[in-house]
Specification:
By secondary structure, the chain is mainly α. The chain has one domain (2-244). It is 80% helix and 0% strand. Helix 9 packs across helix 10. The longest helix has 33 residues, at 49-81. The radius of gyration is 18 Å and the shape is globular. The two termini are 25 Å apart.
Length: 245
């Protein structure tokens, strides 16, 4: 109970301190699916339902991945740059709870873009989508699995600008060179191989499995992979923040 109260207070403080950033990021996260879902439709004449479904679900996955891999590390790097990380870690609170507060805040940020992408694609392309409650678990695991590396960078790299640059590069890979917006078969062999080693492809596959009837989805395998990535992500983040303090 004490841990839950501690986490709730930290989340509330983060939301208050980042309210300006949250407003801007909220607009950005709504523009991302707008650009992908509508923009790709304009670029691809006579787009098929399967392609539109990949783009729609991929845009929803991208909303979660972008917040976890870019927004979260940048917020943490800014907090470290301003001395807030050292301030909070000097208090009698759990270091893991401090990181978890950032993660919960990021989940709140990801929800609008995630939902908007699905609703926009469903409406614009008249898609046949189904809702499986497992999608909630998938979104949480996707956030956990893709946030670890960024949090470690934000904690250990002393320069905020370098953290921002690295995370921006990561998101380019996640968008264009992983099977998020397109089937894995359309990627070159080397990118197909690397996609098995990173979580974004599994996140998108699990979301397609829970929201569509597309063939060649593997929900169980993707959930197992995301769980493994999540455990690793939490472990390295915890180790980094303990080393920091």
């Amino acid at each position: 109970m004490k841990a839950a109260r501690e986490l709730a207070v930290l989340v509330r403080m983060n939301l208050l301190m980042h309210r300006g950033f949250i407003f801007v990021m909220g607009i950005v996260m709504l523009m991302f699916p707008l650009g992908f879902v509508l923009g790709m439709g304009y670029l691809i004449p006579n787009i098929s339902e399967e392609t539109a479904t990949y783009i729609t679900i991929g845009s929803a996955a991208q909303a979660v991945i972008t917040i976890a891999a870019v927004g979260l590390p940048q917020m943490l790097a800014e907090a470290r740059n301003e001395g807030r990380v050292e301030y909070f870690l000097a208090m009698p609170i759990s270091r893991e709870a401090y990181l978890l507060a950032f993660l919960v805040e990021s989940m709140f940020l990801a929800i609008p873009g995630f939902v908007f992408a699905i609703v926009l694609g469903w409406w614009h392309y008249d898609l046949s989508l189904s809702f499986d409650p497992t999608i909630i678990l998938v979104a949480i695991l996707a956030m956990l699995a893709t946030s670890g590396a960024g949090m470690v960078l934000a904690i250990l790299i002393p320069h905020m600008q370098l953290v921002n640059a690295i995370t921006q590069l990561l998101i380019f890979y996640f968008i264009f060179f992983s099977p998020v917006l397109l089937p894995i078969e359309q990627l070159p062999d080397v990118l197909q191989w690397t996609s098995w080693l990173l979580p974004p492809g599994y996140a998108a596959d699990a979301m397609r499995a829970t929201l569509t009837d597309l063939p060649d989805t593997h929900l169980t395998r993707s959930l197992i992979a995301l769980t493994a990535f999540s455990v690793f992500s939490v472990a390295i983040s915890s180790l980094a923040v303990r080393r920091r303090g």
